[in-house]
Design a protein that fits this description.
With about 140 residues, the protein is mainly alpha-helical. Helices cover about 65% and strands about 0% of the residues. The chain has nine helices and no strands. Helix 6 packs antiparallel against helix 7. The model has no long low-confidence stretch (mean pLDDT about 95).
Length: about 140
């Protein structure tokens, strides 16, 4: 589970490298396609603080904190970020390809999560989650 997004991220980096041999594409794709999951720490640490539990790797990896807290934030898991990356890329002149690489990596991550986690259609929109007070029952079926 921890490494499930690496193959797609490497593929995105490789695709961009194919057209412009620059290893920075692999770094960009890994940050936006795999390391975006670092935002799970935000949800986990909120749960630890509210529940007074001791932090544990087992609890973090299990994801049980989502159900226990009945909230889901994952602030980097959002289509709004992909749109923002495209808009910044348009304004960046010759650096557009770097922003497109980041966008494609993030989009593949979100599509994968949409298909495997079975959230509701708009769950990966920050605006939708905020509107529903980040309640987990508005994100997916329990």
């Amino acid at each position: 589970m921890l490494f499930e997004h690496i193959p797609a991220s490497v593929a995105v980096g490789g695709l961009f490298w194919w057209f412009d041999p620059n290893p920075v594409y692999f770094f960009i794709a890994l940050v936006f396609g795999w390391l975006v999951d670092v935002d799970h720490l935000f949800d986990y640490l909120l749960w630890v603080k509210r529940s007074c539990c001791k932090p544990s790797i087992r609890d973090f990896i299990s994801g049980k904190y989502f159900k226990d807290s009945m909230k889901i934030y994952v602030p980097f898991h959002a289509w709004e970020w992909a749109l923002l990356l495209v808009l910044i890329g348009i304004q960046s002149g010759g650096r557009m390809r770097y922003f497109l690489c980041a966008t494609f990596a993030l989009m593949l991550h979100l599509i994968h999560d949409q298909l495997t986690n079975k959230p509701f259609l708009f769950s990966y929109l920050i605006s939708y989650r905020v509107y529903h007070d980040n309640r987990i029952e508005s994100f997916c079926r329990l």
